[in-house]
Design goal:
Layout: H1 3-41, H2 44-49
């Protein structure tokens, strides 16, 4: 197989890795936002009794 034939495969892999990184970053942002909203909704003193 010539070297140019593997170039599209490598490009596709790089795109998938990039998309996975974007998806992971978005999931982390959502999780942090959820955690932050829970911390605001439930004061610390109630957390210990819950």
């Amino acid at each position: 197989m010539p070297d140019d034939a593997s170039a599209p495969i490598e490009q596709a892999r790089a795109q998938r890795r990039h998309q996975a990184a974007i998806t992971e970053a978005a999931a982390l942002r959502r999780a942090r936002a959820e955690r932050a909203s829970r911390d605001v909704a439930m004061p610390r003193c109630l957390e210990q009794t819950a």
